[in-house]
From TrEMBL:
Family as reported in the entry's similarity comment: Belongs to the oxygen-dependent FAD-linked oxidoreductase family.
Alphabetical UniProt keywords: FAD, Flavoprotein, Oxidoreductase, Signal
Positions of transmembrane segments: none
Any Pfam family hit: FAD_binding_4
Protein name from the UniProt record: FAD-binding PCMH-type domain-containing protein
GO molecular function terms listed in the Swiss-Prot or TrEMBL record: FAD binding; oxidoreductase activity
Residues annotated as domain FAD-binding PCMH-type: 59-182
């Protein structure tokens, strides 16, 4: 009986040490720097992570260091500050439509700021202008704009994000890559 009790006490202490270690591992410089983010932060050890970095091109894929679903501008600022402080690469993902995975930074270990939730659309009919959040997809934009009697000519694929599309950078890079491969 006595030795059983001793064993229990030893096991208890072992548990405590193990738990303390786990807590230490979780509080990496990255997680603690991003702790004030209001949106979701998804790390590679999360079960849903692999499904969040897939698109139609299964031949090319990269593993980001973290996916940050920015809830507002402050989250984007915090992410950029953390990337600067920790000397990490950072990229924005709007629709994630780059087959060469520029939405994931085009390489491993990039901090990805997903803009899906930056999706306000404000239309000023008088001024004929619209303020469109960078996470909006073309389908939704066409729908909202047409209800107000407007249209932008941007292509037929409804799931393309306006962020990358408006910048045009992804297309230019893709073209450049295919030309330099020829
Ligand atoms: C994993 O990510 C999902 C979002 O895709 C989130 O709801 C969940 O809380 C995360 N789990 C952990 C353990 O962080
Ligand atoms: C295009 O590709 C070439 C060769 O790979 C590179 O030198 C050049 O900087 C690229 N241009 C742009 C605009 O990315």
């Amino acid at each position: 009986m006595k030795s059983m009790k001793k064993l229990n006490i030893i096991l208890f202490f072992l548990w405590c040490i193990l738990l303390i270690n786990l807590v230490k591992v979780n509080a990496s410089p990255l997680t603690s720097c991003l702790s004030s983010i209001k949106g979701q932060t998804v790390y590679p050890n999360n079960k849903t992570f692999p499904s969040l970095i897939l698109d139609e091109n299964l031949y090319v894929n990269y593993t980001p260091s973290v996916l940050i679903y920015a809830a507002n501008n402050q989250d984007v600022q915090t992410s950029i500050n953390c990337a600067t402080k920790l000397k990490m690469d950072i990229t924005a993902r709007s629709g994630g439509h780059s087959y060469e995975k520029y939405g994931l930074g085009g390489r491993n270990n990039v901090m990805v700021v997903d803009l899906t939730n930056i999706n306000e659309i404000t239309i000023d009919s008088k001024a004929k202008t619209a303020k469109i959040g960078a996470g909006n997809r073309l389908g939704v934009i066409y729908d909202k704009l047409s209800q107000a009697g407007f249209l932008i000519p941007a292509g037929t694929c409804p799931s393309v994000g306006i962020g990358g599309h408006a910048l045009g950078g992804v297309n230019i890079k893709l073209l450049n890559h295919s030309f330099s491969n020829i």
